[in-house]
Design a protein that fits this description.
Layout: E1 10-13, H1 19-30, E2 34-39, H2 42-52, E3 56-60, H3 66-80, E4 85-88, H4 104-133, E5 135-140, H5 153-173, E6 177-184, H6 193-196, H7 200-205, H8 215-226, E7 237-240
Parallel strand pairs: 1-2, 1-4, 2-3, 4-5, 5-6, 6-7
Helix pairs in contact: 1-8, 3-4, 4-5
């Protein structure tokens, strides 16, 4: 397919030491990109990058720490000279249960990592490269941002806000920069263990495509969205859930 090639592009994927982020990095790398994987520690990021391939590199940066974020983007620019693709993927869920049961600290931690960090990193990437040269931003939201839930209320509020921020930034940053979101369903990762580990058969049975997601199911869609094959797509949210949302999303 024309455009499905990322040779010569440089990508940053936040929260990529494992799970969905590492799979996204692997898919971008497979299409030819040089990929920078971030995580809270340099060791974890570098170890994950070594598994991805020779054009993959790790940098340690807490996504919600402005100085560390700035230093990471500066290092990418210094080392690779460009930044074409940013995947704001790092996410957290320290506040299970109803949204009104949270204290300020857990509520704000969720918002800082899931909502503020994507806005922060997009601004940094825009100022460093994309504003002048163009680029693509993809935000990892969740089907939780498209429905309400008894289990993960605050997380879902943060992901719903991230979907809205995606549309807002798509409007602000066009025509040079495309900004889209993905909304995965239940995927086999550490973060989502509470949603599948004890009852995978049940979740699979309730999923129209008959299984929970694998991180690679998400990586391939992100690689498509990052490529020129999706060059007329912006401000959208791509549900990747095997059909789980059709039954209410669990
Ligand atoms: N799994 C699902 O079912 C599912 C569904 C919908 C959406 N999502 C979203 O997908 C994204 C990835 O989650 P996952 O399921 O792949 O989880 P995961 O396997 O637990 O991975 C989370 C990643 O984020 C990094 N991370 C966490 N906090 C960070 C911070 N403050 N700064 C920098 N990196 C940080 C972790 O690295 P370190 O711990 O090494 O720092 C790790 O690489 C999240 O945005 C999540 O909300 C997941």
């Amino acid at each position: 397919m024309k455009g499905l090639d990322l040779t010569g592009r440089v990508a940053v994927v936040t929260g990529a030491s494992r799970g969905i982020g590492q799979a996204i990095a692997a898919s971008l790398h497979e299409l030819g990109a040089t990929v920078v994987l971030t995580a809270r520690t340099e060791e974890a990021a570098t170890a994950a990058a070594a598994e991805v391939g020779e054009r993959a590199h790790g940098i340690g940066a807490h996504v919600a720490d402005e100085e560390q974020a700035q230093a990471c983007i500066a290092q990418v620019m210094e080392r690779f000279g460009r930044l074409d693709i940013l995947v704001n993927n790092a996410g957290t869920n320290p506040a299970p249960g109803p949204v009104i049961a949270q204290d300020r600290s857990r509520f704000m931690k969720t918002m800082e990592v899931n909502l503020w960090a994507p806005v922060l990193w997009t601004g940094l990437a825009h100022r460093a490269w994309m504003g002048e040269h163009g680029g693509v931003v993809i935000n990892t939201a969740s089907i939780g941002g498209l429905h309400v839930s008894d289990m993960i209320g605050t997380y879902n509020v943060s992901k719903a806000a991230l979907i809205h921020a995606t549309r807002q930034m798509a409007m602000e940053l066009g025509p040079k920069v495309r900004v889209n979101a993905i909304a995965p369903g239940v995927v086999r990762t550490k973060l989502a263990e509470a949603l599948w580990k004890e009852h995978e058969a049940e979740v699979s049975a309730a999923t129209p495509l008959g299984r929970i997601g694998e991180p690679e199911d998400v990586g391939s869609v992100v690689a498509f969205l990052a490529s020129d094959a999706a060059s007329w797509v912006t401000g959208e949210v791509f549900v990747i859930d095997g059909g789980q949302l059709l039954r209410g999303g669990g």
